[in-house]
Amino acid sequence: MKEIINFEHFSKLDIRIGSIREAEAVEGSQKLIILLVDVGEKEDIQLVAGIGNSYNPADLEGRQVAVLVNLEPRMIMGHRSQGMILASEGGEGPVIISPLSPVEPGSRVS
Description:
- By secondary structure, the chain is mainly β.
- The chain has one domain (7-96): CATH 2.40.50.140.
- It is 8% helix and 39% strand.
- It contains two helices and nine strands, in the order αβββαββββββ.
């Protein structure tokens, strides 16, 4: 288990449900996918996720996922990632965390 944090630290995380609008493989990478995600803001955000060995980009469009939106942006293989899609490590690779029922993009996870 990682270090225990208090509720104040947890409350700093902005985790929302996002709807994937577009997904495409990163050229030159087998596992990276660029995602354009609606997280309830004026503009969609771009994420770069290492899920390409488990998911086909075309199958991700329209899917809802949990996203950490207030993570400091970083460059990954020349593409800006503005957050992180949440996933669990499954036996055959990452398993995306999704709501059981559709919710409004931008709904907060608590």
